């Protein structure tokens, strides 16, 4: 039996933020809207036209812009309190994965009297939430269409809320928002999306035909657009393809969850604040080489390579990834992001606990395997 879920209302409109009043229609229960974002996104003025459109339509707005990359628990809880006090009847998550994940958890917790640590895990968060609209400004996480929120816990490690109430009511994909995304963020977040598509396709427990189709389609768009998006940043078509590709990959992995690339990437973000996409990019090739020793993974990587028209083997797919990493000038080694070799045991201790994702990987991975992979990119 296969099953597949996703957000039911997805709108694609470059420039659509200026009509945010039209895009919230039917969602809020009263005139009060809370917007969850970060200071970077706010300072860029990306929301300004949207805020003006909402104000003109008579909405009262509260902007919570305290979200930081890899959102920690205390900021999420502060957001919940602020939104509760304001009495918002719609939460809009506006930004990259960090504001969107925070918005998802806030929309849920603001409708309950429970704590964040009560909802960590798979299918633990159950019941209602405030209406939720998500507007991504990066093309990577796919968070706008996943039922996942990743929160940094006090220990510098990450934990996840994974449950269907986290699927948003509506998504707006406005490629104009991503035009100013710097090259290194475009590259890293785009590679994150590629990892989502590849890991969904090779996910052993919940691999399904719909995720497979979405993952392949996502990779075709992403691999063809990422170089243009990085090297000719105002190419709206490339930006739109990146945004749609990231969303398709998000739909894929929300139903066929990610594996060891993410498992090994999490400690880099949790302990060293390496951006999520870059963490994935750093570990992906060596994890894929490790996986390719196993029959199923070898076959699946070959199928992806064939679909992309680059060959029929895992090596062909890996070579294509290396080419794209070159083209987008993304960093390659742990030392490039100031992680010393002596941190590897601590990172391996953390990564090996990520059973939520490691269990989806096509080849079993021990702590020794993880240490070897980290050492090979030290
Ligand atoms: N929920 C999910 O399914 C899921 C999946 C993957 C990753 N994540 C999480 O998402 C987070 C990472 O998200 P992200 O990679 O989108 O980055 P992010 O949201 O952390 O943002 C990174 C930086 O980019 C800036 N930025 C955002 N949009 C911009 C724009 N248009 N122009 C210029 N700068 C812009 C932000 O201000 C911030 O400084 C991590 O916490 C990760 O764990 C969640
Ligand atoms: Fe990711």
Give an overview of the whole structure.
Helices cover 49% and strands 12% of the residues. The protein has 378 residues and is of the alpha/beta class. The chain folds into 2 domains: 10-177, Rossmann fold (3-Layer(aba) Sandwich); 182-376, Dehydroquinate synthase-like - alpha domain (Dehydroquinate synthase-like, alpha domain). The chain has a 6-stranded parallel beta sheet with strand order 1-9-6-4-2-3, sandwiched between helices. A hairpin with a 5-residue loop joins β7 and β8. The radius of gyration is 20 Å and the shape is globular. The model has no long low-confidence stretch (mean pLDDT 96). The structure holds nicotinamide-adenine-dinucleotide and fe (ii) ion (FE2). Nicotinamide-adenine-dinucleotide binds at residues 38, 40-41, 44, 46, 69-70, 95-99, 101, 137-138, 140-143, 146, 148-150, 177-178, 180-181, 185, 189, 275-277.
| Contiguous runs where pLDDT drops below 50 for at least 5 residues | none
Specify the overall morphology.
Answer: globular
CATH topology of the largest domain: Dehydroquinate synthase-like, alpha domain
Annotated CATH homologous superfamily of the largest domain:
Dehydroquinate synthase-like - alpha domain
What is the CATH architecture assignment of the largest domain?
Up-down Bundle
Instruction: Give the averaged pLDDT, no decimals.
Output: 96
Q: State the share of residues found in helices, binned by percent.
A: 40-55%
Q: What is the end-to-end distance?
A: 42 Å
Briefly note the structural class of the backbone.
alpha/beta
When the domains are counted, the total is 2
How many beta-strand elements?
A: 9
Which ligands, by name, code or SMILES, are bound? nicotinamide-adenine-dinucleotide, fe (ii) ion
* SSE succession: EHEHHEHEHEEEEEHHHHHHHHHH
């Amino acid at each position: 039996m296969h099953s597949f879920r996703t957000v039911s209302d997805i709108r694609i409109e470059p420039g659509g933020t200026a009509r945010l009043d039209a895009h919230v229609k039917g969602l809020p229960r009263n005139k009060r809207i809370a917007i969850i974002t970060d200071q970077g996104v706010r300072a860029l003025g990306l929301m300004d036209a949207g805020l003006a459109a909402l104000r003109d339509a008579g909405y009262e707005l509260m902007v919570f812009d305290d979200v930081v990359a890899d959102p920690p628990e205390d900021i999420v809880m502060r957001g919940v309190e602020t939104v509760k006090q304001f009495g918002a009847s719609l939460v809009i998550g506006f930004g990259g994965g960090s504001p969107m994940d925070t918005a998802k958890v806030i929309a849920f917790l603001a409708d309950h009297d429970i704590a964040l640590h009560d909802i960590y895990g798979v299918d633990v968060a159950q019941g209602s939430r405030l209406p939720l609209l998500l507007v991504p400004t990066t093309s990577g996480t796919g968070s706008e269409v996943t039922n996942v929120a990743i929160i940094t816990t006090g220990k510098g490690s990450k934990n996840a809320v994974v449950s269907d109430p986290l699927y948003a009511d509506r998504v707006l994909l406005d490629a104009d928002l991503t035009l100013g995304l710097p090259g290194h963020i475009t590259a890293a977040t785009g590679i994150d999306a590629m990892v989502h598509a590849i890991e969904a396709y090779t996910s052993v427990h919940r691999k399904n035909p719909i995720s497979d189709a979405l993952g392949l389609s996502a990779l075709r768009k992403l691999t063809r657009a990422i170089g243009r998006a990085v090297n000719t940043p105002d190419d709206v078509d490339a930006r739109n393809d990146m945004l749609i590709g990231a969303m398709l990959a998000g739909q894929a992995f929300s139903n066929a969850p990610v594996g060891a690339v993410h498992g090994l990437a999490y400690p880099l973000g949790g302990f060293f604040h390496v951006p999520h996409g870059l963490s994935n990019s750093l570990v992906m090739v060596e994890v894929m080489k490790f996986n390719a020793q196993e029959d199923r993974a070898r076959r699946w990587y070959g199928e992806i390579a064939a679909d992309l028209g680059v060959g029929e083997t895992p090596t062909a797919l890996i070579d294509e990834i290396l080419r794209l990493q070159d083209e987008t000038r993304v960093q390659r080694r742990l030392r490039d992001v100031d992680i010393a070799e002596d941190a590897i045991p601590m990172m391996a201790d953390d990564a090996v606990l990520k059973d939520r994702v490691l269990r989806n990987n096509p080849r079993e991975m021990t702590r020794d395997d993880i240490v070897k992979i980290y050492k090979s990119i030290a």
